Each structure stands twice: as C-alpha cells, then as structure tokens.
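User: Run a structure prediction on this.
Assistant: Running it now.
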Amino acid sequence: MFLLACEGIFIGIVLGLTGAGGGVLAIPLLMWSQSWSVSQAAPIALIATTIASGAGTIQGLWQHTVRYRAAIWIALLSIPSVYIGVSLSKIIPIYYITILFCIVMLISAFRYFTKKPIRSLNLCHTHRLTGRFIWNTKTRFYLGGLGMLLGMVTGLLGVGGGFILVPTLKKISNLSLCCISATSLMIICLVGSITLMTQISSGYHYPLDITAIFVTTALIGMFVGRFLQHRIPEQVIHKVFALLLTCIAILTLYRM
C-alpha cells in the first residue's frame, strides 16, 4: 500500500505541474505495482485523475483562469464518443489496446521532448481585454471537434486526454498557458466524470481500498504540483515528463 500511495502522490504532482499527463503515467504504474492489465488499471487511474483535476479546477475558478464555458461545451460534445470508446474497449483485445496506449505515450513524449513552440492558428478568437472566447460558429465547431476526439480517447484508453487538450488548445487559440492548464483540468474532470458514469452503468466495480488510497494521495500530490508549477522552469518540467513517458512506454512494451 505504501508503493500505491507513493504512486498516487507522484501522479498528482505530474497533473498539477503540467495540467495533463497524470492518467497516461498512472496506468502503467498501476499495471506494474498491482500486476493488472490495462483494462483493470485504467478505471482506477481515471477516477484518481478526475477527482484530482476537480480539485485543481476549483482552484482555477477561484483564480479566474478557467474558461468554463469552453470546458462545458467540449465535455458535452464528448458524451457520444465516450460511449463509442468504452464500447470499443470491450471489443478490442487487451494486447492491442496496450500497444496503442504505448504508442500514445511515445507520441506524447516526443512532443514534450522536442517542445517546439506551438504556433497558434487563432481559429478560436478570444476577447483582447477579458481573455475569454468570442463565441461564434467557428469557435463552437473547433472546440466541439476537440471534445469528440477527447471522448473517444478517454473511453477507449481510460486516460484523461490532457496530452491532447493542452497542445490542441495552444494550436487553435491564443489563451495564456495558465488558462490552458486550468481549463484543461476542468475538461479532464468533466469528461472523466462522464466516462466513470459510463463504466459504472456498464457494471464495473471499483476495489474500494486501492481506489481510496490512490485517489487521496493523488489529491495531495495535485496541490503540491500546483504549488511547484510556478517555481520550476517549464522546459525542465517538459523534458523530465517526456523522459518518464519514454521509459515507461518502452518498459511496458518489453514486459508484454
């Protein structure tokens, strides 16, 4: 249980530092420590990142850095694809889901490691003074499309999808990094909650003792990560995160 608690704190810190990536690391760590498959580890990782993201969302709302209308719109548009993703996860063999999950980790690691500045296409315009989105047909279309993609990934792989959210929001808008991070946490919380309800309605039962320990320690780690976010250079955070993702993906493939 001590190892499980350490993993929870670590995942919470990663989520707090990056606004993403908690779930993509939590699943392989739970697979190793508990000798689980992807399908067993994913729901526990998802519930931990969802609740920890909810705590980060409250902090972001208090600091007025969350674009909550965009988060709600993206979450609503993710609902149909979440059901599709969960259904596919029951059909596709675990072996192939594990390989797909490792590929996702490696792609995410490559993006963080190279970390070339993302040039915003400014497809979703924001107000110059308030920093909030200007809602029109184009904004609804692009943010809605992001929601559909996010729901599919979350339902299929059981991860929050922050590794998709953060770079995509940077690409399609000119939101500041702190707003993107806070908004990403709210979206992860909402989409994760939808996915959890889908899993529960499908008959999944959580192991209460393991879930309680992992969620509690992830919450503690979240607040530590949010505290450290402005005290560690962003480039250092991204390089370390990319290295971790690469090592875990390679080891997971090796152990298959």
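The chain has ten helices and no strands.
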